[in-house]
Amino acid sequence: MNAVRIIHNIERAEKEIVDRFRDIGPATVHEAMGRQGAMDSSIKPIYSGMKICGTAVTVQCHMGDNIMLLKSIDVAQKGDIIVVDMGDIKESDGWGELTSMAAQVKGIGGLVTNCSVRDGLVIKEMSFPIFARGLCMKGTVKESLGWINHPIDCGGVRVCPGDIILGDDDGVVVIPKELAADVYKKSEDRENKEAKTKELLLQGKSLMDIYGFNQTLVRKGCTEE
Q1: Given 67, 81, 143, 181, which residue has the most CB atoms within 10 angstroms?
Q2: Phi, psi of 112, deg, nearest 5
Q3: pTM of the prediction?
Q4: What CA–CA distance (Å, rounded) separates 120 from 113?
Q5: Could you read off the pLDDT of 165-200 as tens digits, one per residue?
């Protein structure tokens, strides 16, 4: 990695493009990207209904140590999503009530972590969106240097600073900032196509006929009686 551990000035996806993704589901984006970008399904909102959409500030922490995660709150800007690799373990937390409050005061848009968090009920009341492996009361130390705003891997996906992070109950998808405009167009096209499919379903049409899947069954030699 770069010898500079903490990078403050990063290139972010354009705000106009980020805002366009707010009304599109992560599953639609995942499909539009050729089924790419989806984090491991174990990383979910800690409570149903939480949503995130913003640009990534990335953090690499040592396992069981959250000092760089604390520092990232100072580095992140309004609307950013803090995305942290803390070792891909469930039995450790590095985030709770006070960190959520500090982030919320700054206008940070949420947290994504491959570990757990704590103080779940309070965070739910605060309405601060967190996507994690779950809830855990086991705390961390604050000793080891890591990295802020360098590329990381979280949930099996490469995340670069400034990428778009989109999440809802289905999980989290990462949209590379350089592909954002193209991915949005493909996602919008997919939503328009699904809207037409819904109209046909209301008319009593079959999904098998709408998508031509019956022809696929015939071509594969499937028989019916």
Answers
A1: 81
A2: -125, 125
A3: 0.94
A4: 14
A5: 999 999 999 999 999 999 999 999 999 999 999 999
How far apart, in whole angstroms, are the C-alpha atoms of residue 197 and residue 211? Answer: 9
Residues 20-60: tens digit of each pLDDT: 999 999 999 999 999 999 999 999 999 999 999 999 999 99
Pairing between β-strand 157-159 and β-strand 152-154 as defined by DSSP bridges: antiparallel
Distance CA 52, CA 50 (A): 7
DSSP code per residue over the chain: --S-SB--------HHHHHHGGGS-HHHHHHHTTS--BPPTT-EESSTT--EEEEEEEEE--TTB-HHHHHHHHH--TT-EEEEES-S-SS-B---HHHHHHHHHHT--EEEESSBB--HHHHHHHT--EEES-B-----B-----EESS-EEETTEEE-TT-EEEEETTEEEEE-GGGHHHHHHHHHHHHHHHHHHHHHHHTT--HHHHTTHHHHHHHTT----
